[in-house]
């Protein structure tokens, strides 16, 4: 599933959109995490994923406001989306390893 995000990102790079493949991979990682949790544990984790995403967004907004004194929307959304990538990648790798062990 994350390979789909990378593929879409590379294809959209040709259209000169200001989005990196990492931006598209984040969305596919979140979808894959939900599918893996549902397949391994028979538990719908979408609600918890939304809470985590919102919490990271709130902390990012507070950090930007504290550090720079203002929140610029373009910078906030780009930073927030990129910050979602790292925990999503770690959780995805853990779930894949648990699934195959």
Q: Radius of gyration from the CA trace? A: 15 Å
- How many strands, what sense, and barrel or not for the largest sheet? none
Shape: flat
User: N- to C-terminal separation?
Assistant: 20 Å
Structural overview:
It is a single chain. The protein has 101 residues and is an all-alpha fold. The two termini are 20 Å apart. The model has no long low-confidence stretch (mean pLDDT 79). It has 4 helices and no strands. Helix 1 packs antiparallel against helix 2, helix 2 packs across helix 4 and helix 3 packs antiparallel against helix 4.
What is the secondary structure topology, with strand pairs?
Blueprint: H1 2-13, H2 21-41, H3 46-68, H4 73-100
List key phrases describing it.
101 residues; mainly alpha
Summarize the structure.
The protein has helices spanning 2-13, 21-41, 46-68, 73-100.
């Amino acid at each position: 599933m994350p390979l789909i995000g990378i593929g879409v990102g590379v294809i959209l790079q040709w259209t000169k959109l200001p989005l990196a493949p990492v931006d598209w991979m984040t969305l596919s990682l979140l979808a894959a995490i939900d599918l893996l949790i549902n397949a391994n544990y028979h538990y719908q984790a979408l609600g918890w994923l939304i809470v985590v995403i919102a919490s990271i967004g709130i902390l990012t907004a507070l950090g930007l406001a504290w550090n720079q004194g203002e929140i610029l929307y373009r910078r906030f959304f780009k930073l927030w989306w990129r910050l979602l990538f790292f925990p999503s990648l770690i959780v995805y790798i853990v779930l894949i390893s648990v699934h195959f062990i």
